[in-house]
Amino acid sequence: MPRAKKKVMNRRNSAKKENAPRWKYFWTVLRISIGFIFLWPFIDKTFGFGISTSAANAWINGGSPTAGFLLHGTTGPLASIFQSMASSHFVEWLFMLGLLFVGLTMIFGIGLRLSAIVGTVMLTLMWLAELPITTNPFMDYHWFYAYALIASALTKAGNYFGFGKWWTNLKFVKKCPILE
Questions:
Q1: Structure confidence at residue 137 (pLDDT)
Q2: Which regions of the chain does DSSP assign to beta strands (E)?
Q3: Which end of the chain is more exposed for a tag (fewer CB within 10 A), N or C?
Q4: Cα–Cα–Cα angle for 34, 169, 146, nearest 5°?
Q5: Using CA atoms, how far apart are residues 113 and 42, in angstroms rounded to an integer?
């Protein structure tokens, strides 16, 4: 290979190596941030720290983690369907377990495929509950969060400063790829 071509190739390869760590930090921050977006409501609704949920309305004190949103935050043509689900123990448990699951898996970087699916379903249901969207009919935070979940799974963001590599090498995860 000619010397000039080698220099160009070496510069390209060194540039790729230099950029790789930057992307690792970006995906790590995005993954952990989206994890906390899901984990914090679980913590606040469970214990009632007073940020969005008062101690009296905390789940451990008999409050309903879904009633506030489903009864007062739903609008539009599907509001009655979502309002009928308010305070259902089944819906409460599904919602809270979904928040916990997505939050922890994103923070630890494991099970990102399943986490992206669960999180996207939850976000889609919340988006449907708020129809019609009044601020921006084309894009709102529900879709942005869903894209962040999906992008984290597609790029295997759990491999960067997370337990993703370890997780994907487990036998049961190799047998069931959706758990990656």
A1: 73
A2: none
A3: N
A4: 20
A5: 21
